[in-house]
Each structure stands twice: as C-alpha cells, then as structure tokens.
Design a protein that fits this description.
The protein is an alpha+beta fold. 34% of the residues lie in helices and 26% in strands. Helix 4 (156-168) packs across helix 5. The protein is elongated, with a radius of gyration of 24 Å.
Length: 207
C-alpha cells in the first residue's frame, strides 16, 4: 500500500498493486485500486513505455473524490525531477497523474528492496556477502555447507576467520561492508575488521 496524505481532508492511496517489468524498457506497467479518504474510488492503470497513468472512477462518489484530489494537486508546488546527463532538473506542474505515478514508483522501490533483502538472506546460509548494499553491488565467498554447521564445529570459527582474512578483507574498499549478521562479532574482530565494516551484533540469527 502506498499513501499520500495531501491535507486533513484528502488522502490518496494505491492498493492491490500489480505490475509487470519489461525486458525491453525501464517503464513497468501496473494496475491498482485508487482509494481516496479510505474509500475505493477508482482504478489506476499504466501501460508502461514512459506514459503517464490513467485513472477512472467506479461511481459518482468516487468521481467527486477524484475531482477534489485533482483540484488540490493542481495547487501544489511544481515537482522537481532529475534529468539524465543534465545538470539542471526539470520542473513539472503537480497533477494527480504525476502523484499516482510517484506513489507507484515508491511501491516499486520498496518491493525491489524487499526482494533484494530476501535474496541476500537466502545466500547468507552458505555464503559471506559483502560489498555496497546501498548500490546493490555485492560479492560473495561461499562454502559447501551452511555457516551454522561450520560455526557449530570446534574449528569452525577459525575457518570463518581465515576466509574473512584471506579472501575478503584484502578486497575491501572504502564504503564496503559485510552483511552477514549470522557471524559473531568476535570473529570479525579476530579477522581484522573494524566497526562499521560488519553488522553490529554479537548474536547469531536464524536466516
């Protein structure tokens, strides 16, 4: 669910969002229900290809709520957007269509972030994951068995320390971090890592 609180009387949400990513361009198509002031008011669609979304009301009450939202959006300040390979941003008059597309983009970013986190946590079972998570640029060093089984062995801690010290630390650059919070902090410290380069947790987690 994505929501824009416009004022005390107008609240806009996109719910039941479904979307389709395209292999041919960077503009996904989507469909969603439009809820205004906690009432289902219309349907929103965007066929992708960089076009603005379309919306329709489901009844007369929905049509009136959409009209109120359109009026209010037209009074908002222009919206600023960055242009690719351009130093100056472009200013666009605020409209309900632009707001709905922005709400979908927020939903898409959030969904992709969750998918990214789920993928990383699955990999953490048998791999040490490191890199630049904010840029989604990651590397890994893997084992044939789960890290939990390695750490359960009396010699397991030293195995992880050696892997961190030999295969990962030499490749570390400014801003990189290890993401595994299923490795105890004392292992990171023993391998030569410093605070900020690993998760600040001393407990194993179930991933």
């Amino acid at each position: 669910m994505n929501k824009a609180s416009i004022d005390q009387t107008i609240q806009i949400e996109l719910v039941n969002i479904s979307y389709q990513l395209s292999f041919y361009d960077n503009y996904p198509s989507f469909e969603a229900d439009l809820v205004i002031n906690d009432r289902l008011s219309g349907k929103v669609t965007n066929e992708g290809f960089g076009n603005a979304c379309d919306y329709t009301s489901i009844d007369e009450v929905g049509q009136e709520l959409i009209h109120r939202a359109e009026q209010y959006c037209s009074t908002l300040p222009p919206m600023e957007y960055a242009q690719v390979d351009q130093e100056e941003d472009v200013m666009l008059q605020s409209t309900l269509r632009i707001m709905l597309d922005d709400l979908f983009e927020q939903h898409l970013i959030h969904s992709q972030h969750l998918d990214f986190e789920k993928t990383v946590r699955r990999q953490m079972h048998k791999e040490i994951i490191y890199g630049y998570p904010e840029r989604k640029i990651l590397c890994s060093y893997g084992f044939s068995i789960p890290l939990s089984r390695i750490l359960a062995n009396p010699l397991g801690a030293q195995v992880i320390i050696n892997a961190l010290r030999t295969h990962i630390l030499p490749k570390f650059e400014s801003g990189m971090v290890v993401l595994n919070d299923n490795i105890p902090e004392d292992i990171y410290i023993s391998a030569g890592f410093v605070e900020g380069q690993y998760p600040q947790s001393t407990q194993k987690v179930s991933i």
